[in-house]
Write a structure and sequence with these properties.
seven-stranded antiparallel sheet, alpha+beta
Amino acid sequence: MIGFSQQIDVRGAPHVVFELLGDMNDLDLWNPSVSSSRRTQGDRWELGSRYESTVVRGPIEMSAKSTLVAIESGRTVRYEGSIGPFWSVDTLNFRPSRLGTQITFHNQTGTPPWMRPFHPLLHALFQRQAKRAVNGALDYVATHPEDPELA
């Protein structure tokens, strides 16, 4: 199992930051490792909604298929699904902080048995990619001033 967890603080109310980052349909807007993302079934924030994304890892493009499996409006989202031969569980938590919102990014990715000898390399590569996603989220939130209607 490959894992990643990181917390960052950003300006903006938790429900606003949740709206910016929580919907997998918008993943390509802030995650530089995702070249496209779209909802293929269901509605925004509906449990069971499905998504397809294209994930770019170096010269390799992989298809990702995810399902929204848990939601607490304005606070938490969890998606599960496949990325090529991997199984991924992604959770984002949004909590009030002194700056505005503390976001916790948490991922657990399972690797197929035949890839276990490459686990240390995969783990190192994944950490770098996950940090790029966190930095992309930080930049995206910073460039989107809080909508007065959501505040």
